[in-house]
Specification:
The complex is a heterodimer of chains A (171) and B (155). Chain A has 171 residues and is mainly alpha-helical. Chain A has helices spanning 27-42, 48-62, 65-69, 73-77, 82-85, 99-112, 120-129, 132-154, and strands at residues 70-72, 165-167. In chain A, strands 1-2 form a two-stranded parallel ribbon. In chain B, 61% of the residues lie in helices and 0% in strands. In chain B, helix 3 packs parallel to helix 6 and helix 3 (39-53) packs across helix 7. Classes of the chains: A mainly alpha (171), B mainly alpha (155).
Chain lengths: 171, 155
């Protein structure tokens, strides 16, 4: 992965993490992107802690250093702890996470790995545990997060490591 | 229909969350109006993603009109004369993006910038994020293909 930035971000910083990113170079989609991101956090039935677990699983699989370093404050307020975050790894099936959390990670892995090969067993577990609304919410959240993180990776300029930073939903 | 809802396509599945669906639709529609990247180029990239992921449902979709000869030539785009240099550049970028965004080379990114500018490169990766995501969701949701319903390419 290149650490060289492939584009230069907007010249006039606003203090908003998304507006000041490379996404700010495409104003035609910026507001729609931000509105969709807010809706993922605010307009779906899953808790913010559950959404954050899917986001962090994606971040680690895609190896987006920016995404991995972020913690959304509303997820922490909803009960996400660093102990739980530390279990978002390849050993999650045998972790102490609860069954809903493990299924969220399994569904995220299926999306990232081989989405066409989802098993009947996993589908049945998901249907027994989540409402259809929750599953569609999770699906859209993972798709949006994956798009964001791949965008960051593809545009380069990623440091090797960043400290954990707590943020609010960019408005 | 999908195993999650009775929806036959993406819009019908997403419709159970209308607020999220409307936000998504707004962004999706804007992708096809971007001044930085021609809509036909994005459609070629979307179709190539459908081929690479093996999504028949997305291959059968039509977001922008593409001649059947150009659709048919997509698997051999490097040597086919049906594509412009700028389209080839974006298709090459798309193929690497689909496999592993970390594997995109500086040369591939610079080639897109040469044709479409820095904002064009950002526009392309934004669009690929959504298009790749929708292809993955079609597969994950097991959306039916037209052969399962009524046949043909859908707009």
């Amino acid at each position: 992965m290149t650490t060289k930035a492939r584009v230069s971000p907007p010249d006039n910083p606003t203090g908003n993490i998304i507006r000041d990113s490379n996404l700010g170079l495409v104003p035609e989609t910026l507001e729609s992107y931000m509105a969709l991101n807010r809706a993922v956090w605010e307009d779906g039935p899953l808790s913010a802690a559950e959404v954050e677990m899917a986001r962090l699983r994606n971040a680690r699989k895609v190896n987006c250093v920016f995404c991995k370093s972020v913690r959304y404050d509303l997820a922490i307020e909803a009960g996400l702890t660093e102990d739980k975050v530390s279990q978002i790894n390849d050993q999650h099936p045998s972790s102490t996470l609860n069954s809903r959390e493990k299924l969220i990670l399994a569904y995220t892995d299926q999306y990232l790995g081989d989405p066409g090969a989802i098993s009947d067993s996993l589908k049945n577990q998901l249907l027994a545990t989540f409402t259809p609304q929750e599953l569609v919410h999770l699906s859209i959240a993972v798709a949006v997060f994956n798009g964001f993180s791949r965008c960051a990776v593809a545009l380069g300029g990623m440091p090797d490591e960043l400290p954990i930073m707590q943020i609010s939903i960019p408005q | 229909m999908s195993w999650i809802t009775k929806g036959e396509n993406r819009s019908e599945v997403m419709a159970i969350l209308p607020d999220l669906a409307s936000r998504f639709d707004c962004l999706y529609e804007r992708l096809w109006q971007l001044p930085q990247i021609p809509a036909t180029t994005l459609e070629l990239c979307r179709l190539r993603l459908a081929q690479l992921h093996g999504s028949e449902a997305d291959w059968q979709r039509e977001e922008q009109p593409i001649a059947m000869a150009r659709r048919a030539a997509l698997p051999r785009w490097p040597e086919a004369d049906a594509f412009t240099a700028a389209e080839r550049t974006c298709l090459e970028f798309t193929e690497t993006y689909a496999m592993d965004a970390q594997a995109i080379t500086d040369e591939q990114a610079a080639a897109v910038v040469q044709h479409h500018g820095e904002d064009g490169l950002v526009a392309l990766v934004e669009a690929l994020g959504i298009l790749d995501g929708m292809t993955r969701l079609s597969l994950l949701w097991q959306l039916p293909t037209r052969a399962d319903t009524q046949g043909g390419i859908t707009k």
